[in-house]
Amino acid sequence: MKIYDLIIIGGGQAGLSVAYFLRRSGLDYLILDDQKESGGAWLHYWDSLKLFSPTDYSSLSGWQMPETDHEYPLRAEFIAYLKAYEARYKFPVQRNTFVFQVTKADELFKIETNNGNFYAKTLVSATGTAKNPYLPSYPNQNVYQGVQRHAVEYRSGDAFKDQKVMVIGGGNSGAQILSEVSKVANTTWVTLEPPRFLPENIDGRYLFNQATSNFFDETTEAFNRQVSLSDIVLVESVRDGLKRDVYHAVRPFVSFYKDGVVWENGNKEAFDAVLWCTGFKPNLKHLEALDVVENNRIATKDTRSLKEPQLWLVGYGSWTGFASGTIYGVGKTARDTAREIRAYFKKHA
């Protein structure tokens, strides 16, 4: 029975980032990835998606993403970069391996997969959120007979040609998808609050720096402005949507009925489809048998589980490190995680 020093579950940006900082550690590790190719969650996003930062802020540690022909890289270009990044550092990745469950006995993790069982002394979970899309619950939602799709299932606006479509969600995904769908369909945009568009000269790099300043220095004037990583960046598709005047956000409805939604004033309105751009929740189901998951979170100090100290979690969002769910932000938490793992093996040598 082969026993690895470490197994990393997930071969996307978070898993590769941890592997980068462990590449000279001397540890015997393996990345288990459930995809058939490089790209992680990016393989499942819509075709026209654009990142909202230039390449220097859309790169992983160690190797900057090569310049592209676009101001903001396309989804396909970032996937190609991840593939090249993985090949550049020759990370050990086993593809098409879906982790069903993780258990632990005698200080060893047993990772049960569709390709058999794997064993490791330590574990990094970097499965992200894309496999656990969040859909808010509305009364009579199951009665609605139209199409409902989460953004992770959306590919292009072609499927909604000449239809009446509601797009729900006020972040970058909602704005980009609405712009595309509005070219071929009659759209309504529903957001919890009025959406916030950044000035044209501000993009994800400035947004990240501003949010970092807010996070680490609550005394700054910037903190009081509460700049958010969810503010909408004016990538090309969003600028086009603004030019066509398609962004007229309304507040949420109160319930569904079989043909559409019921607004707060009691009026009913029919829709052929509803697109949920409402984000994701951490994908932690595979860790439930370890008895560490509570309210879809795992208590951590930085990225290390408090209840199971041989387990680290990387890339799930702010609770595993500031901006750790972003391309640019995951590097710091991955570096600190790798440092802790090396220290663990040094102590237990």
From TrEMBL:
<dbReference type="GO" id="GO:0050660">
    <property type="term" value="F:flavin adenine dinucleotide binding"/>
</dbReference>
<dbReference type="InterPro" id="IPR050982">
    <property type="entry name" value="Auxin_biosynth/cation_transpt"/>
</dbReference>
<protein>
    <submittedName>
        <fullName>NAD(P)/FAD-dependent oxidoreductase</fullName>
    </submittedName>
</protein>
<dbReference type="Pfam" id="PF13738">
    <property type="entry name" value="Pyr_redox_3"/>
</dbReference>
<keyword id="KW-0560">Oxidoreductase</keyword>
<dbReference type="GO" id="GO:0004497">
    <property type="term" value="F:monooxygenase activity"/>
</dbReference>
<dbReference type="InterPro" id="IPR036188">
    <property type="entry name" value="FAD/NAD-bd_sf"/>
</dbReference>
